[in-house]
């Protein structure tokens, strides 16, 4: 499935992008915000990798591992989204204080 491969590559690219921004940032709340974004991207990558494996191979072991990847990826994406949502107001406040 080409669309799954595209989503996998795109989410991996976003993960690397946010991790590079995380390393280059000096503000603590911005770092936590970027860490949440990168966690979402990594979770999407792992989940869609598991979905892609379900289409490629039809064995029992692949189904078990694919479902495990989907569950871990979804959990990571959900935790990253909750972290991102929690830290957005603090990062905005921190950015406003730094601009003064």
From TrEMBL:
Q: Write out the transmembrane intervals.
A: 6-22, 34-55, 61-81
Keywords on this record?
Membrane, Transmembrane, Transmembrane helix
The reply to whether Membrane figures as a keyword in the UniProt entry is yes
Instruction: Give the matching Pfam families.
Output: YtpI
Task: List the InterPro entries.
Answer: YtpI
Q: Which domain of life is it from?
A: Bacteria
Q: What name appears for this protein in its UniProt entry?
A: Membrane protein
